[in-house]
């Protein structure tokens, strides 16, 4: 019997990328003479597509694109390295891979940046593919990203799980009728994930492994 295929979100699920993302957002805002909000507000930028978050700040598309360019400028130089791997998640990924599961990363992060990060993870080789947002933002929301992953890997949604820390991960999975797990060590939290309709919640990577091994 074939094993389920597991799609993992990146930020807030595999890595704590708060420092890199928030510093790059702050950099873009400063360069465009916008006030930089506090850390709690900046953390809300982790998860949604960049253009979605910049749009209310700048309004017009030209300035939004400039903000995205500035964000990526700093991320390309520094931000992609500014993260920590969550304790225990690497062992879980390696265990799932060894058990015969096919694994992929599905993230709203720019795909070239996401690929660079995953390639440098100690367990990055466990992932068959990394599906991320396009440079132009045409593909940037979770339903589109999951659809791209399903197409690339020639999968039916019923074969797959989506694992992530934000409501976008759960909503994307539900859009495709996929099973899903919300993880509680990231940036969304229990209330957000429950409201989004998470099928299951995992407090720790070890609990995630147990849920996926049932």
Which helices and strands occur, and which strands form pairs?
Layout: E1 5-8, E2 15-16, H1 18-31, H2 39-42, H3 50-58, H4 61-77, E3 84-85, H5 89-98, E4 102-110, H6 111-119, E5 129-133, H7 142-152, E6 160-164, H8 167-175, E7 179-183, H9 190-196, E8 200-202, H10 205-212
Parallel strand pairs: 1-4, 1-6, 4-5, 6-7, 7-8
Antiparallel strand pairs: 2-3
InterPro entries: HAD-like_hydrolase_sf (IPR050155), HAD-like_sf (IPR036412), HAD_2 (IPR041492), HAD_sf (IPR023214), PGP-like_dom2 (IPR023198)
Organism: Stenotrophomonas nitritireducens
Pfam families: HAD_2
Describe the structure.
There is one protein chain. It is globular and about 55 Å long. Strands 5-4-1-6-7-8 form a 6-stranded parallel β-sheet, sandwiched between helices. The protein has 214 residues and is an alpha/beta fold. It contains 10 helices and 8 strands. Helix content is 46%, strand content 16%. Helix 7 (142-152) crosses helix 8. The chain has helices spanning 18-31, 39-42, 50-58, 61-77, 89-98, 111-119, 142-152, 167-175, 190-196, 205-212, and strands at residues 5-8, 15-16, 84-85, 102-110, 129-133, 160-164, 179-183, 200-202.
